[in-house]
Specification:
alpha+beta, 15 strands, 18% helix, globular, disordered N terminus
Length: 212
């Protein structure tokens, strides 16, 4: 595997595990829905390539409350990487578009509830959650609303496969670049299907092995 591929997968795994360094609050917990009727829709939006499962995203980005990007209007979803892991009674799922800079969603899935976040990162310190905050490379943003739909209720056992659709509207966050401060928020729909669940360490090693 090339050095740039190693760095990419290491970076993506770090995103999945660290939530950009900000732990979700327990008050973000909400119930998820189980609905097998979405399975055909998920299957259309997910594919496997070279042993890596790829999901897809639709998004609408708002800059200072004006729409600046909208894949819903174009009717074509954007492919994204999906990484998942099982640690005890928690399933972590991260969908990410981009490489060293990009955005996506994070799901922490528990027995009957879940925590969902939008995140965005850059290779420069340009983001902050609140106006008074210091700038950082990335932020994990709480959601104003979200809905997680799964095709089946997870068993929380090693080797389980989880598939579904996540819909969210993020809270506001800020970007400061070239002396200009802009407010952003994101509407996002993600389609995902995990590989057989393993621990974070096993998932990372599997990615390394596949790309040697």
């Amino acid at each position: 595997m090339t050095n740039i591929s190693t760095l990419f997968f290491s970076t993506l795994l770090l995103i999945a595990l660290s939530s950009c360094g900000q732990a979700p609050k327990s008050t973000d917990n909400g119930a998820y829905i189980v609905d097998q009727s979405i399975k055909a829709e998920v299957e259309k939006k997910v594919r496997s390539s070279n042993g890596v499962t790829m999901g897809s995203l639709d998004f609408k980005m708002f800059e200072n409350d004006s729409i600046v990007a909208d894949t819903y209007a174009k009717g074509k979803s954007i492919e994204c990487m999906t990484i998942s892991s099982l640690d005890g009674d928690t399933i972590s799922i991260t969908g990410f578009m981009g490489m060293f800079a990009g955005f996506g969603y994070q799901v922490a899935l528990f027995r009957d509830t879940c925590i969902v976040r939008h995140f965005i990162k850059s290779d420069a310190e340009i983001y902050k959650l609140k106006k008074p905050d210091s700038l950082t490379f990335g932020v994990s943003v709480s959601c104003v609303t979200y809905k997680l739909i799964l095709t089946n209720k997870p068993t929380f056992k090693k080797g389980d496969i989880v598939e579904g659709i996540i819909e969210l509207m993020s809270d506001d966050y800020y970007e400061v670049a070239n002396g200009n401060e802009r407010k952003y928020k994101m509407k996002l729909t993600g389609y995902f299907k995990t590989e057989p669940l393993a621990s974070a360490q096993e998932s990372y090693q599997k990615l390394i092995n596949k790309n040697k």
